[in-house]
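Margin note from the TA: students keep mixing up input and output lines. Inputs are the sequences; the output is the structure of the whole complex. Example:
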Amino acid sequence: MWIYEKKLEFPVNIKKPDARLAKIMIEQYGGADGELGAAIRYLSQKFTMVTPQAKATLNDIGTEELAHLEMMGTIVKQLTQGLTDKQIKEAGLDPYYVAHGLGIYPSSAAGVPFSAGALQSKGDPVTDLYENMAAEQKARSTYEYLMDLTDDPDVLTPLKFLREREVVHFQRFGEALGIVRDHLNENRTAFISKPDFMKKR
Amino acid sequence: MTREELLKSLMELDFMAVDIGLFLNTHPNDSVMIEEYNKIITAAQILREKFENMYGPLCSFRSYAQKGWEWIDNPWPWQKEANFDL
């Protein structure tokens, strides 16, 4: 189960509302490589993971992603606080506004609703850990693109933190993959053979 | 200590614990980091208690309700008033 902590993992204190930024920041809330997908991906994969180290890694990184989801929601919320109708129209946030008002809705920057189609839970521990390493890299790239498109230090600071976490998570998943491979007694060639426990069926 | 100072220090310690915890998941035999982890948890618990005594509960069903049901009180973490600049 989970308990909630009434604080963010890292502070978000945005002074200047900005409709254009809000429109793109939603990508990391509900986009294909966003924090919601990351959390659901790891917290679903954990049920079929092997080795104590890799199970804990999925469980705990999945949990941290929920804290990142909250940070991204907070960024969008603060960027939209106090926007005028004119600002919403000029920045092109109006299609989002007619559907959701200033509510925080998990969609991509292009308006595509969140979909589990962007993630996998394959039941194969090696496959899943590779997927996760790729996912962390995709999220890192997205944060870098978002950082390219803003110069507001209040937005950049939490984005830098979130980007760094992708790098750390990539490292931990890589270590977990090494542990799982040793456990399955698999060599480290690029061709991946089916682990024994899957052959039995 | 103000709410902001106390919260900032606690957030620092809790973040260290999160990060070291992830490290220990894949390095469970690193006794130096385990010692470091325990030190941080001890320091965080002291700060947490101090914060909660002064500014209300931080946890949904782990914190004592000391002055009525303060759990629902503003500010919530996504509100600007709960945040600060680094």
